[in-house]
Fold this protein.
Amino acid sequence: MTAIRKATKTVKKSAVRRPAAPKAASQRGPLATDRVSAILKSLDEAYPDAVCALTHKSPWELLVATILSAQCTDVRVNMVTPELFRRFPTPQAMAKATLPELEELIRTTGFFRNKAKSIQGAAKKIITDFGGKVPQTLAELTTVPGAARKTANVVLGVSFGKADGVVVDTHVFRISRRLELAKGETPQVVEQELMKVIPKDRWISYSHQVIHHGRQVCIARNPKCKQCNLETLCNSNDKTWSS
Ligand code: SF4
């Protein structure tokens, strides 16, 4: 009896041996977990101190600067905001300014008439609905004139350390697609894709680092692939050099 039981056990053991299960989708392809980790690690190495380039001293100033940065460089915005905030340092002061005064101060950022209306509208909204303080939720912030989802994500992430989404500007849009982390045709779709593939605790830093990468290396035309520490991880058709 004993011998028979032993033989049965042996048969069962060998029957359990099966070919290795195929890897889960998250472990293969461009969105493989280890590939995404390698991309994040390379970004950390290249841009360990990446922060928001818009000069600001408060959430209010950052909100205004971010509204002004639409279709404009951060460098240009940083040239106009010191005088703007000297003249109108608070939402209360900005709410009382005349539109021509605001327009004159922000003229060089482009679309200055719309932007003047937006920043004054933002000031009034923050006074009437939020007690003069910039709100700290995406739902509230996106009710502020001039603050669409991208602007709200910038303010939440930079001023309050809150990641409710991923900031997708022109650099994040372009580079996330080049790195095959996203395929979407719009920033909104790309953001949703990134939120699935990038760990939440990296949403804020990912955007800052990729924005720096886009300005310095992975520029829109003729990216500097020879200088790029992500080159071995990148299969983009836009590559100008391959190792
Ligand atoms: S290899 Fe070239 S295209 Fe790819 S991320 Fe680097 S700079 Fe951009």
